[in-house]
């Protein structure tokens, strides 16, 4: 290997990463841990999705510790690690491995650094990556505004906004599942 060579990270490197990261453009991109409020919101979503999965046997709910391996996308992305998600694809032959393919429903809960023009551009790119990989619905959960913007693969430019007093759902990705927005954001 010459002095000018740069190691291109792989899924094997991602599996050895010491914390939450995603594989984008051959580089491991680390993510910081959630704070108190985002963590509580993620927990409520996971409980609800896991209960739905147990009752319907229609898929599996995952926390942000999961990494989904996807074929390299046009952006260079090869993995996702959403804060919460629902997966309906096949169980990997090696259950210790990453699931192959994208979740049908991905939830991203904003943290401190997820506000402002640069963060909005990064999130728009990530939503496009999700849809290119096959995700049907992506939630952008905003703990400060106490709203959920739900983006669909079929109409990615026109999100549905859910707020207090409404039931937020995942549309055709998870028929019959919903969450009360007021309950989701309670202290």
Q: Which tags fit this structure?
A:
six-stranded mixed beta sheet, tt1808, chain A, alpha+beta, two-stranded antiparallel ribbon, 12 strands
Strand order of the largest sheet: 3-6-7-8-9-10
Envelope shape: globular
Residues in helices, as a percent range: 25-40%
Strand content: 25-35%
Count helical runs.
Answer: 4
End-to-end Cα distance: 54 Å
**Count of discrete domains:** 1
Structural class given helices, strands, pairing? alpha+beta
Question: What is the overall pLDDT average?
Answer: 93
Explain this structure:
The protein has 187 residues and is an alpha+beta fold. It has one domain (34-71, 79-184): tt1808, chain A (Alpha-Beta Complex). It is 26% helix and 27% strand. It contains four helices and twelve strands; from the N terminus they run H-E-E-H-E-E-E-E-E-H-E-E-E-E-E-H. The chain has helices at residues 11-16, 36-56, 117-133, 181-184; strands at 21-24, 27-30, 60-63, 68-69, 79-80, 84-87, 105-109, 137-142, 147-152, 155-162, 167-169, 178-180. Strands 3-6-7-8-9-10 form a six-stranded mixed beta sheet, with helices on both faces. The relative contact order is 0.14.
What's a quick, concise take on this entry?
With 187 residues, the chain is of the alpha+beta class.
Topology overview:
Elements (H helix, E strand, L loop, with lengths): L10 H6 L4 E4 L2 E4 L5 H21 L3 E4 L4 E2 L9 E2 L3 E4 L17 E5 L7 H17 L3 E6 L4 E6 L2 E8 L4 E3 L8 E3 H4 L3
């Amino acid at each position: 290997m010459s002095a000018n060579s740069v190691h291109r990270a792989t899924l094997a490197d991602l599996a050895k990463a010491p914390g939450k990261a995603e594989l984008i453009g051959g580089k491991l991109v680390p993510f910081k841990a959630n704070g108190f409020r985002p963590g509580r919101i993620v927990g409520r979503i996971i409980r609800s999705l896991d209960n739905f999965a147990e009752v319907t046997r229609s898929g599996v709910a995952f926390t942000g510790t999961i990494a989904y391996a996807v074929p390299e996308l046009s952006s260079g992305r090869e993995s996702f690690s959403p804060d919460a998600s629902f997966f309906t694809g096949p169980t990997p032959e090696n259950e210790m491995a990453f699931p192959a393919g994208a979740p049908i429903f991905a939830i991203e809960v904003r943290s401190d650094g997820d506000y402002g023009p640069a963060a909005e551009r990064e999130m728009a790119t990530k939503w496009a990556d999700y849809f290119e990989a096959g995700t049907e619905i992506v939630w952008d959960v905003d703990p400060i505004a106490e709203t959920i913007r739900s983006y669909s693969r079929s109409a990615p430019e026109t999100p549905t906004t859910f707020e207090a007093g409404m039931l937020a759902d995942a549309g055709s990705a998870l028929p019959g599942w919903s969450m009360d927005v007021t309950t989701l954001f309670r202290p």
